[in-house]
Design a protein that fits this description.
mainly alpha; two-stranded antiparallel ribbon; 2 strands; 1% strand; globular
Length: 276
Amino acid sequence: MKTNIGLSCFIIFFTLLFLTVIYVIIYAVDFRGFEVIFISNWLEEFPLAPIFWIHIFTEGALVENMQWLYLALSIVFAFAVFIIRAKDKPLFSNPWIYLLIGLSIMLVEDARNIRHKTTDFLSSVVFNVETSFHVLPGLTLRTVTELVIYTIIGGIMLYAFIGIIRNKNADKTGKIFLTSGFVFYGIAAISSATRGVGDWYDRVGTNVLNSLISRSDITWSGESMIYYNSSLGFWFMDFIVEESLELMGAAFLLSSLIIFFTTQYHHTYPPAKTSQ
C-alpha cells in the first residue's frame, strides 16, 4: 500500500537542513563576527539588538512562520483523514476529530499567544498582581496558567494520540513520526510553562551563550544586554531552543499525517484494476 513516505522524509530532512543552515549562519554572524552578504545590512535596521538569531527566531519571524505553515497543512490532512474515516466511529469517539481540534487550538494559541493574553487578563483584572518572573505571585500565576492551558491542549491531543496508536491498521511509520512530533512538542511545552521556575531559562541560556562567545571577539554576552525586559540568555532558550523544538515537532506531525492520509485514502478508495 502506498504511504508517501518519501514526501514525509523529505519534509523532515528539509527542516533539519533548514535549521542546520540557520545555526551555521548564526554562529558565523553572531559568534564569530563574520560579514555575511545582506544579513549584516539587514541587522542595521535593529540598532538596539543587531543579533541575527534574535530576529530570525523571534515571534512571527521566519522559523515560527514555517511552524505555522506546517500546523496549517497538518490541519488540512487531519481533516481529510477524519472525513475518510468518519463512518468508523461516532463523532466524539473518533480520535481524528480530537486531533483536528487539538491541532487547530495549537495553531491559534501559538499564533495569537492565548496563554500570555490569558495570564495578562488574570493578573490585571482578577488578581491584580504583576506577572514578572521575578515576583513570586506573578511567577506562580503565569506558570499555573500556562500549565493549565498546555494540559487542556495536551489532554485533547493525548486522547487522539492513544486512539491512533491503538489502531492496528494505522501505518507503523506514521505512528513513529506522530510519536516523535508529540515528544518534541511535549518537551517544548513543559520547558515553556516552567521557564520562570528558578530562572532556569535565564541561567542555562546565559551559560550556553557565554560558552559560545568565550573564544570570540564579540562584545556582548548573555548578561550584557536586556531585550524586552529579559536577558539574552532567556531569549536564547525561548527563541532558538524552544522554536527549534516546535518546528521539528510540527514537521513530524505533518509528515505523519501525510502518511496516514495516503494509506487511508488508498485503503478506502483503492485504484481500479485495469482489465487485461
